[in-house]
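Researcher: Go.
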Amino acid sequence: MKRILIAGALALATAAPAFAADLPPAAPPPPRAPVAYVPAPVFSWTGFYVGLNAGGAFGDSSWTTPAGSVGSFSTLGALFGGQLGGNYQIGQFVIGAEGDFDWQNLRGASAAGVCAPAIIGGCAVASNWIATIRGRAGFAADRTLFYVTGGGAFANVKPSTAALPYGGGTEAGWTAGGGIEYAFTDNWTAKVEYLYVSLQSATCSAGACSVGNAALPGGFPGVAPATVSFNENIVRAGVNYKF
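Model: Structure:
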């Protein structure tokens, strides 16, 4: 019996490789489905925004009377405020509009005897606020926007002699400049910009410029009515929240 079992086992062992060789080859595994490529979303500048800004300003003021120019001097100060606007992106081009209002402490005065020799202390000018309404046009390199801007400007321009209260009022002019804005999230952006502002039609009225030192013996007239130009260079940084 043992011999029969051993002989059967040997026969099976000998026949197994031949039987396996006669079987059809195993089917290859199905190919893996390709992984779909999903491009990263492209940032869009389209939308409305609101923000804050702060910076500094410097410029000059020139005074002219009917008798001719009476002097020019520099101005300097700081400013801060807010802005709101909107953009619309077409391809890589961005167009939009922005309005802003800033409180500023811009001051300047001539040396005594330079702006108006007849006035004790010379001439002075100040501005406490400025606002602009501007169009914007730029080129977007994804999250970086390079833009130019221009439009109308409004400010209170207050000329005076150094010996008298400030006069003047709200003046209108123009502004132009440019800047760079970067979107560091989908909603928050930061910018740095430069604006040149030209206001040319302020007037130093009789109440602020006409007295001079006329009360002194042999008195002298003042400089009213003086036409006062006011030019301002603004350099500021800001942040915006885009809706």
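Model: Residues 212-220 have pLDDT under 50 and may be disordered.
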